[in-house]
Request: fold
Amino acid sequence: MSMEKDILMDLYQKFNIGDIPSVLKGFTENAEWSTPPNVPWTKGICQGREQIAEYFKAVGENHSSIKVIPQDFVQEGNKMIVAGYLEGTAIESGINYATRIVHVMTWENQRIAKFEDIVDAAEILKAF
Reply:
């Protein structure tokens, strides 16, 4: 297992238990995070740890539970692609959803500098 994969597995575990301060430490100070803009809790692109923290806060405000289930990892140099699932329950509706995800990351010095969150937004919207 690569150092980045070990770090990422730890970050996913921390996210799944709600330890967002620890997750944020896994990103560079000026990291970029992008999620499809039609996902209910996002505006699309977050620039820097502060905006990424706001994104995670919005995730928590909209879910009674949420977790990432990573399955497949591919790494080439400083790029990594992870395929898996996202499962969540919307607070307002109480509806559960599960959707395939792909995360595309660029790493710098064992921290994530760029993170692209590719999800089936239509599946998520059914719960919101």
